[in-house]
Amino acid sequence: MKWLRISTALTGIAACSFMLAQVAPHAREAGAILAAQDDPAALSELKLDAVLRQNDRLVQDNIEAALAAGDADLADSFVALARDRNIAVPDDLLARVSDAVKEENSTSHFARRFATGLVTGSGDDVASLSGTVVGDLFVIGDVRDVVREGKHLAMGEDTDRLVLGLAAAGLAVTAATYVSIGGAAPVRAGLTLVKDARKVGRLGEGLAAWAGRSAREFVDTPVLQNAVASGSVLRPGQTVSAIKAAFRAEKAGALVRLGKDVTRVAEKTGTRGAMDSLHIAEGPKDVARAARLAEAQGSKTRAIMKLLGRGALLLVGGAFDLALWLFGAVLTLFGLLSSIKATTERLTQAWCDRRRARRLRRAQVAAEAALAVAAGPA
Q1: What is the pLDDT of residues 90-138, one digit of tens each?
Q2: Which residue of 23, 261, 325, 375 could cross-link 30, Cys pair, CB 3.0 to 4.6 Å?
Q3: 271 near 193, Cβ under 8 Å?
Q4: 53-59 contacts: CB < 8 A, separation 24 or more?
Q5: Do 224 and 243 contact (CB within 8 A), yes or no?
Q6: pLDDT tens digits along 167-191
Protein backbone atom coordinates (compact mmCIF):
# COMPACT_ATOMS: atom_id res chain seq x y z
CA MET A 1 0.00 0.00 0.00
CA LYS A 2 2.86 2.32 0.88
CA TRP A 3 4.58 1.80 -2.48
CA LEU A 4 1.26 2.25 -4.28
CA ARG A 5 0.94 5.72 -2.79
CA ILE A 6 4.50 6.55 -3.86
CA SER A 7 3.82 5.26 -7.37
CA THR A 8 0.68 7.40 -7.59
CA ALA A 9 2.64 10.51 -6.66
CA LEU A 10 5.36 9.69 -9.21
CA THR A 11 2.68 9.23 -11.86
CA GLY A 12 1.32 12.65 -10.95
CA ILE A 13 4.78 14.17 -11.49
CA ALA A 14 5.10 12.53 -14.89
CA ALA A 15 1.59 13.53 -16.00
CA CYS A 16 1.90 17.13 -14.82
CA SER A 17 5.36 17.46 -16.40
CA PHE A 18 3.98 16.28 -19.73
CA MET A 19 1.01 18.63 -19.55
CA LEU A 20 3.20 21.57 -18.54
CA ALA A 21 5.47 20.93 -21.54
CA GLN A 22 2.40 21.17 -23.79
CA VAL A 23 0.84 24.19 -22.12
CA ALA A 24 3.94 26.27 -21.37
CA PRO A 25 4.61 27.55 -24.94
CA HIS A 26 1.00 28.69 -25.32
CA ALA A 27 1.01 30.25 -21.88
CA ARG A 28 4.28 32.05 -22.58
CA GLU A 29 2.87 33.46 -25.83
CA ALA A 30 -0.39 34.42 -24.10
CA GLY A 31 1.49 36.21 -21.35
CA ALA A 32 3.59 38.13 -23.87
CA ILE A 33 0.49 39.21 -25.80
CA LEU A 34 -1.35 40.30 -22.66
CA ALA A 35 1.71 42.25 -21.52
CA ALA A 36 1.93 43.98 -24.93
CA GLN A 37 -1.77 44.80 -25.29
CA ASP A 38 -1.14 48.53 -24.77
CA ASP A 39 1.77 48.64 -27.23
CA PRO A 40 0.51 48.28 -30.85
CA ALA A 41 4.03 47.79 -32.26
CA ALA A 42 4.95 44.94 -29.89
CA LEU A 43 1.48 43.41 -30.10
CA SER A 44 1.54 43.34 -33.91
CA GLU A 45 4.98 41.70 -33.91
CA LEU A 46 3.76 38.89 -31.65
CA LYS A 47 0.62 38.33 -33.70
CA LEU A 48 2.61 38.38 -36.93
CA ASP A 49 4.82 35.59 -35.58
CA ALA A 50 1.77 33.41 -35.05
CA VAL A 51 0.14 34.25 -38.41
CA LEU A 52 3.26 33.79 -40.52
CA ARG A 53 4.05 30.44 -38.87
CA GLN A 54 0.76 29.06 -40.15
CA ASN A 55 1.33 29.82 -43.85
CA ASP A 56 4.72 30.07 -45.57
CA ARG A 57 3.19 31.61 -48.70
CA LEU A 58 1.04 34.19 -46.95
CA VAL A 59 3.20 37.18 -47.85
CA GLN A 60 3.75 36.07 -51.44
CA ASP A 61 0.02 35.43 -51.97
CA ASN A 62 -0.84 38.87 -50.62
CA ILE A 63 1.69 40.52 -52.94
CA GLU A 64 0.06 38.75 -55.88
CA ALA A 65 -3.40 39.81 -54.70
CA ALA A 66 -2.34 43.44 -54.25
CA LEU A 67 -0.86 43.57 -57.75
CA ALA A 68 -4.01 42.01 -59.18
CA ALA A 69 -6.06 44.71 -57.43
CA GLY A 70 -3.82 47.45 -58.81
CA ASP A 71 -2.56 48.45 -55.35
CA ALA A 72 1.18 48.73 -55.92
CA ASP A 73 1.65 50.54 -52.61
CA LEU A 74 0.22 47.61 -50.64
CA ALA A 75 2.33 45.15 -52.63
CA ASP A 76 5.42 47.22 -51.82
CA SER A 77 4.43 47.21 -48.15
CA PHE A 78 4.36 43.40 -48.19
CA VAL A 79 7.79 43.39 -49.86
CA ALA A 80 9.09 45.55 -46.99
CA LEU A 81 7.56 43.12 -44.49
CA ALA A 82 9.15 40.15 -46.28
CA ARG A 83 12.52 41.89 -46.24
CA ASP A 84 12.21 42.64 -42.52
CA ARG A 85 11.19 39.06 -41.73
CA ASN A 86 13.75 37.43 -44.04
CA ILE A 87 10.97 35.84 -46.10
CA ALA A 88 12.06 34.79 -49.58
CA VAL A 89 10.17 36.40 -52.47
CA PRO A 90 10.77 35.35 -56.10
CA ASP A 91 12.85 37.81 -58.11
CA ASP A 92 10.28 38.05 -60.89
CA LEU A 93 7.61 39.02 -58.37
CA LEU A 94 9.89 41.69 -56.89
CA ALA A 95 10.46 43.05 -60.40
CA ARG A 96 6.70 43.23 -61.02
CA VAL A 97 6.21 45.14 -57.78
CA SER A 98 8.99 47.56 -58.68
CA ASP A 99 7.49 48.20 -62.13
CA ALA A 100 4.02 48.72 -60.66
CA VAL A 101 5.34 51.24 -58.12
CA LYS A 102 7.18 53.14 -60.85
CA GLU A 103 4.04 53.27 -62.98
CA GLU A 104 1.91 54.46 -60.08
CA ASN A 105 4.41 57.21 -59.30
CA SER A 106 4.87 58.29 -62.92
CA THR A 107 4.30 61.97 -63.71
CA SER A 108 1.43 61.40 -66.15
CA HIS A 109 -0.46 59.07 -63.82
CA PHE A 110 0.03 61.38 -60.83
CA ALA A 111 -1.06 64.50 -62.74
CA ARG A 112 -4.21 62.82 -64.06
CA ARG A 113 -5.31 61.49 -60.67
CA PHE A 114 -4.32 64.73 -58.91
CA ALA A 115 -6.61 66.70 -61.22
CA THR A 116 -9.43 64.22 -60.60
CA GLY A 117 -9.13 64.64 -56.83
CA LEU A 118 -8.92 68.43 -57.10
CA VAL A 119 -12.04 68.70 -59.25
CA THR A 120 -14.26 66.00 -57.77
CA GLY A 121 -13.15 66.27 -54.14
CA SER A 122 -12.78 62.53 -53.69
CA GLY A 123 -9.91 60.12 -54.17
CA ASP A 124 -8.68 56.64 -53.46
CA ASP A 125 -4.95 56.86 -54.16
CA VAL A 126 -2.00 59.10 -53.33
CA ALA A 127 -2.38 61.42 -56.32
CA SER A 128 -6.14 61.99 -56.13
CA LEU A 129 -6.06 62.40 -52.36
CA SER A 130 -3.28 64.96 -52.76
CA GLY A 131 -5.61 66.83 -55.10
CA THR A 132 -8.43 66.84 -52.53
CA VAL A 133 -6.07 68.16 -49.85
CA VAL A 134 -4.92 71.00 -52.08
CA GLY A 135 -8.53 71.79 -52.97
CA ASP A 136 -9.47 71.95 -49.29
CA LEU A 137 -6.47 74.13 -48.44
CA PHE A 138 -7.78 76.65 -50.97
CA VAL A 139 -11.29 76.18 -49.49
CA ILE A 140 -12.67 75.06 -52.87
CA GLY A 141 -13.35 71.50 -51.75
CA ASP A 142 -14.84 72.35 -48.38
CA VAL A 143 -17.08 75.10 -49.78
CA ARG A 144 -18.30 72.70 -52.46
CA ASP A 145 -19.05 69.98 -49.87
CA VAL A 146 -20.77 72.35 -47.45
CA VAL A 147 -22.90 73.93 -50.16
CA ARG A 148 -23.87 70.58 -51.67
CA GLU A 149 -24.74 68.85 -48.38
CA GLY A 150 -26.26 72.03 -46.98
CA LYS A 151 -28.61 72.30 -49.94
CA HIS A 152 -29.69 68.70 -49.34
CA LEU A 153 -30.32 69.54 -45.69
CA ALA A 154 -32.33 72.67 -46.51
CA MET A 155 -34.49 70.77 -49.02
CA GLY A 156 -35.11 67.85 -46.67
CA GLU A 157 -33.14 65.41 -48.80
CA ASP A 158 -30.71 62.73 -47.60
CA THR A 159 -27.75 64.58 -46.10
CA ASP A 160 -24.37 63.29 -45.06
CA ARG A 161 -24.12 65.30 -41.86
CA LEU A 162 -20.66 63.93 -41.17
CA VAL A 163 -19.23 65.26 -44.45
CA LEU A 164 -21.07 68.52 -43.78
CA GLY A 165 -19.58 68.83 -40.29
CA LEU A 166 -16.06 67.86 -41.41
CA ALA A 167 -16.17 70.38 -44.25
CA ALA A 168 -17.36 73.14 -41.89
CA ALA A 169 -14.61 72.26 -39.43
CA GLY A 170 -12.13 72.16 -42.28
CA LEU A 171 -12.97 75.70 -43.33
CA ALA A 172 -12.33 76.98 -39.83
CA VAL A 173 -9.06 75.07 -39.57
CA THR A 174 -7.99 76.29 -43.02
CA ALA A 175 -8.34 79.85 -41.80
CA ALA A 176 -6.16 78.97 -38.81
CA THR A 177 -3.64 77.41 -41.21
CA TYR A 178 -3.22 80.67 -43.07
CA VAL A 179 -3.07 82.72 -39.88
CA SER A 180 -0.39 80.45 -38.40
CA ILE A 181 1.44 80.18 -41.76
CA GLY A 182 0.91 76.44 -42.05
CA GLY A 183 0.94 75.55 -38.36
CA ALA A 184 -2.49 73.91 -38.58
CA ALA A 185 -1.80 72.24 -41.93
CA PRO A 186 -1.42 68.73 -40.42
CA VAL A 187 -4.89 68.99 -38.87
CA ARG A 188 -6.28 70.30 -42.15
CA ALA A 189 -4.83 67.37 -44.10
CA GLY A 190 -6.06 64.86 -41.52
CA LEU A 191 -9.62 66.18 -41.63
CA THR A 192 -9.59 65.97 -45.42
CA LEU A 193 -8.52 62.33 -45.25
CA VAL A 194 -11.33 61.55 -42.80
CA LYS A 195 -13.82 63.28 -45.06
CA ASP A 196 -12.58 61.45 -48.16
CA ALA A 197 -12.64 58.13 -46.32
CA ARG A 198 -16.29 58.80 -45.56
CA LYS A 199 -17.03 59.61 -49.21
CA VAL A 200 -15.50 56.41 -50.56
CA GLY A 201 -16.93 54.19 -47.82
CA ARG A 202 -13.60 53.58 -46.06
CA LEU A 203 -14.55 55.04 -42.66
CA GLY A 204 -15.19 52.42 -39.98
CA GLU A 205 -18.74 52.30 -38.61
CA GLY A 206 -17.68 52.98 -35.04
CA LEU A 207 -15.47 55.90 -36.02
CA ALA A 208 -18.17 57.29 -38.32
CA ALA A 209 -20.72 57.16 -35.49
CA TRP A 210 -18.31 58.93 -33.13
CA ALA A 211 -17.43 61.59 -35.71
CA GLY A 212 -21.12 62.11 -36.46
CA ARG A 213 -21.87 62.76 -32.78
CA SER A 214 -18.92 65.15 -32.59
CA ALA A 215 -20.12 66.99 -35.70
CA ARG A 216 -23.51 67.61 -34.12
CA GLU A 217 -21.79 69.11 -31.09
CA PHE A 218 -19.49 71.58 -32.83
CA VAL A 219 -21.76 72.64 -35.73
CA ASP A 220 -24.70 74.97 -35.13
CA THR A 221 -27.13 73.52 -37.67
CA PRO A 222 -29.59 76.47 -37.92
CA VAL A 223 -26.76 78.96 -38.43
CA LEU A 224 -25.16 76.64 -40.98
CA GLN A 225 -28.43 76.29 -42.89
CA ASN A 226 -28.74 80.07 -43.15
CA ALA A 227 -25.14 80.32 -44.31
CA VAL A 228 -25.65 77.66 -46.96
CA ALA A 229 -28.90 79.18 -48.18
CA SER A 230 -27.01 82.27 -49.35
CA GLY A 231 -23.68 80.54 -50.03
CA SER A 232 -22.15 79.61 -53.34
CA VAL A 233 -19.00 78.04 -54.67
CA LEU A 234 -18.63 81.13 -56.84
CA ARG A 235 -18.42 83.35 -53.74
CA PRO A 236 -16.02 81.37 -51.52
CA GLY A 237 -14.92 84.30 -49.34
CA GLN A 238 -18.44 85.31 -48.36
CA THR A 239 -19.53 81.69 -47.94
CA VAL A 240 -16.55 80.82 -45.74
CA SER A 241 -17.21 83.74 -43.38
CA ALA A 242 -20.83 82.72 -42.99
CA ILE A 243 -20.01 79.06 -42.43
CA LYS A 244 -17.30 79.78 -39.86
CA ALA A 245 -19.91 81.41 -37.67
CA ALA A 246 -21.63 78.03 -37.37
CA PHE A 247 -18.49 76.27 -36.19
CA ARG A 248 -17.96 76.00 -32.41
CA ALA A 249 -14.20 75.70 -32.22
CA GLU A 250 -14.19 75.16 -28.44
CA LYS A 251 -16.04 71.84 -28.87
CA ALA A 252 -13.87 70.46 -31.65
CA GLY A 253 -10.81 69.44 -29.62
CA ALA A 254 -11.35 65.70 -30.08
CA LEU A 255 -11.82 66.11 -33.83
CA VAL A 256 -8.64 68.17 -34.06
CA ARG A 257 -6.71 65.42 -32.25
CA LEU A 258 -8.17 62.89 -34.69
CA GLY A 259 -6.95 65.01 -37.61
CA LYS A 260 -3.45 65.13 -36.13
CA ASP A 261 -3.35 61.36 -35.59
CA VAL A 262 -4.53 60.66 -39.13
CA THR A 263 -1.77 62.89 -40.45
CA ARG A 264 0.81 61.05 -38.34
CA VAL A 265 -0.29 57.80 -39.97
CA ALA A 266 -0.17 59.34 -43.45
CA GLU A 267 3.33 60.70 -42.87
CA LYS A 268 4.68 57.19 -42.23
CA THR A 269 2.50 55.03 -44.47
CA GLY A 270 1.08 57.35 -47.13
CA THR A 271 -2.51 58.36 -47.68
CA ARG A 272 -3.67 54.81 -48.41
CA GLY A 273 -2.22 53.69 -45.10
CA ALA A 274 -4.20 56.44 -43.39
CA MET A 275 -7.32 55.25 -45.23
CA ASP A 276 -6.68 51.67 -44.06
CA SER A 277 -6.41 52.81 -40.45
CA LEU A 278 -9.65 54.78 -40.73
CA HIS A 279 -11.37 51.74 -42.21
CA ILE A 280 -10.53 49.41 -39.30
CA ALA A 281 -10.81 52.01 -36.51
CA GLU A 282 -13.83 51.95 -34.24
CA GLY A 283 -13.02 55.23 -32.54
CA PRO A 284 -10.38 57.96 -32.15
CA LYS A 285 -8.36 55.83 -29.72
CA ASP A 286 -7.87 53.24 -32.47
CA VAL A 287 -6.54 55.93 -34.80
CA ALA A 288 -4.12 57.09 -32.10
CA ARG A 289 -2.92 53.48 -31.77
CA ALA A 290 -2.56 53.28 -35.55
CA ALA A 291 -0.35 56.37 -35.41
CA ARG A 292 1.90 54.69 -32.85
CA LEU A 293 2.00 51.54 -34.97
CA ALA A 294 2.89 53.52 -38.10
CA GLU A 295 5.68 55.39 -36.33
CA ALA A 296 7.18 52.07 -35.22
CA GLN A 297 6.63 49.96 -38.36
CA GLY A 298 6.85 52.56 -41.14
CA SER A 299 6.25 51.20 -44.64
CA LYS A 300 5.31 47.75 -43.28
CA THR A 301 2.22 49.15 -41.57
CA ARG A 302 -0.21 48.61 -44.45
CA ALA A 303 0.81 44.95 -44.78
CA ILE A 304 0.45 44.44 -41.03
CA MET A 305 -3.03 45.98 -40.96
CA LYS A 306 -4.02 43.90 -43.99
CA LEU A 307 -3.00 40.67 -42.24
CA LEU A 308 -4.21 41.46 -38.73
CA GLY A 309 -7.00 43.98 -39.23
CA ARG A 310 -8.02 45.77 -36.05
CA GLY A 311 -6.04 43.13 -34.15
CA ALA A 312 -2.90 45.03 -35.17
CA LEU A 313 -4.00 47.90 -32.94
CA LEU A 314 -5.31 46.19 -29.83
CA LEU A 315 -6.25 42.86 -28.26
CA VAL A 316 -9.54 41.87 -29.87
CA GLY A 317 -11.74 39.07 -28.56
CA GLY A 318 -8.99 36.76 -27.32
CA ALA A 319 -8.26 37.99 -23.80
CA PHE A 320 -10.38 35.26 -22.18
CA ASP A 321 -8.70 32.48 -24.18
CA LEU A 322 -5.26 33.89 -23.39
CA ALA A 323 -6.15 34.06 -19.71
CA LEU A 324 -7.27 30.42 -19.85
CA TRP A 325 -3.86 29.37 -21.16
CA LEU A 326 -2.19 31.20 -18.30
CA PHE A 327 -4.62 29.73 -15.76
CA GLY A 328 -4.05 26.25 -17.21
CA ALA A 329 -0.28 26.67 -16.93
CA VAL A 330 -0.54 27.88 -13.35
CA LEU A 331 -2.88 25.01 -12.45
CA THR A 332 -0.59 22.45 -14.08
CA LEU A 333 2.45 23.91 -12.33
CA PHE A 334 0.57 23.73 -9.03
CA GLY A 335 -0.25 20.07 -9.73
CA LEU A 336 3.42 19.36 -10.52
CA LEU A 337 4.62 21.02 -7.32
CA SER A 338 1.94 19.23 -5.30
CA SER A 339 2.99 15.90 -6.82
CA ILE A 340 6.65 16.59 -6.04
CA LYS A 341 5.70 17.54 -2.48
CA ALA A 342 3.59 14.37 -2.04
CA THR A 343 6.35 12.19 -3.51
CA THR A 344 8.95 13.77 -1.26
CA GLU A 345 6.77 13.34 1.83
CA ARG A 346 5.90 9.72 1.04
CA LEU A 347 9.50 8.76 0.24
CA THR A 348 10.64 10.46 3.45
CA GLN A 349 7.92 8.69 5.41
CA ALA A 350 8.91 5.35 3.86
CA TRP A 351 12.57 5.98 4.75
CA CYS A 352 11.66 6.97 8.32
CA ASP A 353 9.40 3.90 8.69
CA ARG A 354 12.21 1.69 7.43
CA ARG A 355 14.73 3.15 9.90
CA ARG A 356 12.20 2.79 12.72
CA ALA A 357 11.61 -0.82 11.80
CA ARG A 358 15.37 -1.47 11.79
CA ARG A 359 15.76 0.08 15.24
CA LEU A 360 12.87 -2.00 16.56
CA ARG A 361 14.39 -5.18 15.13
CA ARG A 362 17.78 -4.33 16.62
CA ALA A 363 16.18 -3.55 19.96
CA GLN A 364 14.22 -6.77 19.82
CA VAL A 365 17.35 -8.76 19.02
CA ALA A 366 19.22 -7.04 21.85
CA ALA A 367 16.38 -7.78 24.27
CA GLU A 368 16.24 -11.42 23.26
CA ALA A 369 20.00 -11.65 23.71
CA ALA A 370 19.76 -10.10 27.15
CA LEU A 371 16.99 -12.52 28.13
CA ALA A 372 19.06 -15.39 26.84
CA VAL A 373 22.05 -14.27 28.93
CA ALA A 374 19.83 -13.82 31.97
CA ALA A 375 18.26 -17.27 31.52
CA GLY A 376 21.67 -18.95 31.10
CA PRO A 377 23.07 -21.62 33.52
CA ALA A 378 23.15 -20.55 37.13
Answers
A1: 999 999 999 988 887 665 555 555 555 544 555 555 445 555 555 555 5
A2: 325
A3: yes
A4: 58/307, 59/85, 59/87, 59/89, 59/303
A5: yes
A6: 767 666 654 443 343 444 556 677 7
